[in-house]
């Protein structure tokens, strides 16, 4: 048996089967947020996939292009310059290491905290032009997150319509932006053409919603709720992708489900560049199913599937986990014992 050694740069990075052209999944729902029936379409997509594509939106191309150009410039700068922006812990520049517990991927990134509507002082800004581009981009993402969450509320019959949206746009909300750069890895493809390095390992996002944009290099895969198969998402730099997070799953008592996703670095020539906005609530926010979804006026048709927690509790627990862990599992309520059927006195004893 021939055992091929992984190049040292790839040590600790797991390999995935290289996707084939036929792996592109064409069934990802597309939603025009301004179109008729958008609220229903958003809820349906979130229930079925926990993921959808926003096709018609009002984010000017210039806002995306400006941030993308800043990101390209930053990632092209010398390593020493990038390292000056901190080894992401959690904010700042990170290279291969994700989180604190040993996860590694074939990428470099800049993870930034957002205070209300602009880059937080806790996040180092590589340049004032990058800071401006981030602030402008985050403004657009907050707008889109608001629309999406208002539609979720409307589609589920929750009032007020802003109940979910205000959790991520209020002054104390906990928002993040990550710029990811996945360089190609031709050496790996020469060694093992059927395998590709993991760019970003499988995980669900802890927040309510995440909004992803990428250039035209493929790599994103999502796990289908129906069967758990991994499918490749066709890239579309004119669109945005909305990802349901764990907190929205709990707030809707499991009606909308967070989606597992990952990135595989399969293009041997071109970098993938992605920008992802994470909409999280204030630290003190109680995360529990919305009252309307548990039945009204004491007519308790449905019980909460989760133990109650705050976003602060969840985040603290999340930072102790590995990327692929199921972070909601510890908060799942155990099913109440089944109610015993009364025995009819005339029934014969069971054998
Ligand atoms: C192993 C990790 C890495 C975490 C924390 C912990 C579990 C979940 C990861 C994420 C996933 C979504 C974005 C992020 C920013 C988040 O909020 O949770 C990530 C964070 C990080 O990259 O630092
Ligand atoms: O780069 C991508 O397409 C996905 C990135 C991602 O999942 C993340 O940054 O949490």
UniProtKB/TrEMBL annotation:
Region: Disordered, residue numbers: 326-351
InterPro entries: DIOX_N (IPR026992), IPNS-like_FE2OG_OXY (IPR044861), Iron_ascorbate_oxido_reductase (IPR050231), Oxoglu/Fe-dep_dioxygenase_dom (IPR005123)
Keyword hit for Iron: yes
Top-tier EC class: oxidoreductase
Pfam families: 2OG-FeII_Oxy (PF03171), DIOX_N (PF14226)
Keyword field: Dioxygenase, Iron, Metal-binding, Oxidoreductase
Low complexity bias (residue ranges): 341-351
Needed cofactors: L-ascorbate
Protein name listed in UniProt: gibberellin 2beta-dioxygenase
